[in-house]
Amino acid sequence: MADLSKKLAKAPVTSAPQKKVAETFTTATEKPTRTTIYLPTSLAKRLKHAAVEEERSVSAILAGLAEDWLNKEDD
């Protein structure tokens, strides 16, 4: 946890995200849909920290996990 705090303290402050959420999910035929999920507080915090570490959005991580899970279920 201390390593994350140091990374966040050293992280440059930017006024715009590196990539917009819509750009992450948008294809020629598919646009993102907003969905509300409820997570335990500790899990939500861990997920946000992991997103910072991975330099990805929480949405991108969850979409990837859902896609993997659905593809596994189809097999």
TrEMBL record:
The keyword Iron does not apply. The keyword Transmembrane does not apply. GO terms for biological process: regulation of DNA-templated transcription. Keywords: Plasmid. Residues 1-27 are annotated as: Disordered. Residues 33-68 form the CopG-like ribbon-helix-helix domain. It holds the Pfam family RHH_5. This is ParB protein. The gene is parB.
